[in-house]
Amino acid sequence: MTGQDRITGEWADVARSRGWEPLEPAPLRLDWWRLRCTGCGAEDVRQYAALAPCRHGRPLSPGQREAAQETARTAESRVRAAGWEPAEPFPGSLVAGWSLKCPECGNTVRRASTPSQVRPCTHRATAPPAEPDPAWHAWRERYESGETVGEDTEWLRRAGWEPAGAFPARAADPVPVRCIRCCAERALVLGDLVRDSAPLPACSHPGDRQPRPLTPQERSERRDDFKNLRDDRYGQEAAEAGWEPAEPRPAKTTSRWRLRCTGCGEEVYARVSHQEHTQPCPHRLTADEEKTTARFEAAGWAVLRHPVRGGLSTQWDIRCATCGHETRRKAAKKITPCTHPDSARETR
Q1: Could you point out which of 38, 164, 278, 341 has its C-alpha 20 to 30 Å from the C-alpha of 126?
Q2: How far apart are the C-alpha atoms of 29 and 94, rounded to whole Å?
Q3: Which residues are CB-contacts of 163 (< 8 A; sequence separation ≥ 6)?
Q4: Domain boundary among 209, 236, 267
Q5: Counted domains in the chain
Q6: Structural domain boundaries enclosing 315
Q7: pLDDT, tens digit, for every residue of 236-283?
Q8: Cα 258 to Cα 248: distance, rounded to the nearest angstrom
Q9: Which of 126, 125, 138 is nearest to 171 (CA)?
Q10: What confidence tens digit (pLDDT) does each residue in 148-161 have?
């Protein structure tokens, strides 16, 4: 059972509880419903919003008749003040549906006559016959066929717009267009603009302030695009400073990025957030590195490679000048000489 069947079944139960037997399925709330009284057998049309028990042919009392007439006069004056004309007699209740007709455009609606429901007509009745406009129809056919899109719509796309729907039959009707940048939609009358080549109004880009939510796939694609753009930008900045990537750039700008100098081959770790990748290579050892190298040489070691600048490791690759033993050590305050382990093994 669907939701509509359940609701109509409940309405039928309400009608039976008030002494009516439905002669047809329950319609919408504001539509008429053919019923038969289970007490006197009289048939009547009622609405669910005004489903009062049958009076079995008894007339209304003077007070009830006066109250009903006052309600009808109030409802009629309210709908006439809003610009409507009743298309049928008053249904007997303010919450019941009442067919109203707009005398200006001929639009017909069914709505309740309560103050919140009676609003002026928006004049959305059937549009008048389309006016012949050969120039407009020719332009529309050329655009929709795609033969001369570049020529016919260059003025439309130059202003940042693209069509967002089908073209109307009349040139005086608005055409839905969409901003290429922010996807904001707007209705523009293009008929006069096509014939007179007038400039199109520019978009204020309200879509930038209220962007539509992205799908998971679009978010993933956008992250990849932004990362590629950042990689190209940071790679170009590093190349201008004389560096080339020794490894892929990490996702975070605060992480260390290993670069290699294109001139001397020196490798460093640079942080993009600190603009270290834009500082050129000095092509020589720093003052601290020169002092540490001299200390290792004084202890009988030859420096093979110093730690990569900017990295977390402080280990120096060194070799003993006497026995050729290679090891890695930190630059401690006191550097001990080599114990010649390789020579001791050969002696044994």
Answers
A1: 164
A2: 13
A3: 143, 156, 175, 176, 177, 178
A4: 209
A5: 5
A6: 287-347
A7: 888 888 889 888 888 788 888 889 888 888 888 888 888 888 888 877
A8: 8
A9: 138
A10: 455 556 667 777 77
